[in-house]
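The records we work with from here on pair a chain with its fold. These numbers are not coordinates but entries in a learned vocabulary of local backbone shapes. To see the layout at work, look at the sequence and tokens printed below.

. . .
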Amino acid sequence: MGLDITVMIADWSWLGEAPPQDRSARLRDAWYADETGLWDWAATVPEGAWRWPRGADADRFCVYEFRRTAGSFKAHFWAGQRWDTVRGHADPLLRAQLDALLGGLVWTGADGEAEHTDPAFLGAEPPAPYGVLLARTPDGVRELAALWRRIGPRLGGLRAAFTEHAAEPDSWVGEFGEFADLLDDWGRVLTEADRRGWCVVGLSE
């Protein structure tokens, strides 16, 4: 068993009204509620799509199903590892932008100290509650979404460097297409959350 991650966007007007220390529990309680329909293990879950819950919280949060990850955090971890390997060969501007984007989401950063939670989301007192891997307020989402808009059209320029220095076929995120798809999925999450003025949360069971 490895670390899992479920990435959600949530209505900040609903989640943010709770005290910071109660926000992750409020979202988790809504996610776990039987009436959401999200816990039907026999249901087919399309990848690269949104899953809206049913019930009282149907308009308050939504789950995004990443492609090629099966809900595992490993893909996100290995995307960070691949970036560690290839970043020294990237265009300096793209490197700075991807450092900021991945460092704000799942990568530990060049110094291993990147933060993936906004203090304004969970409060100033560390650490984050158990199972919270990512927590970005609408302001944090807005900054990351703006980065993605600049990175997305230029990401293909990283293909040659990735293939030469970071590719490991048959491994997690071992080919450039998998790396690009994972980033594109994050771009979809950030873009939709930013469009709604919502937050982004990554929870582990």
Notes: The two ends are 12 Å apart (CA to CA). The chain has a mean pLDDT of 94. Strands lie at 6-10, 49-51, 61-65, 132-136, 199-203.
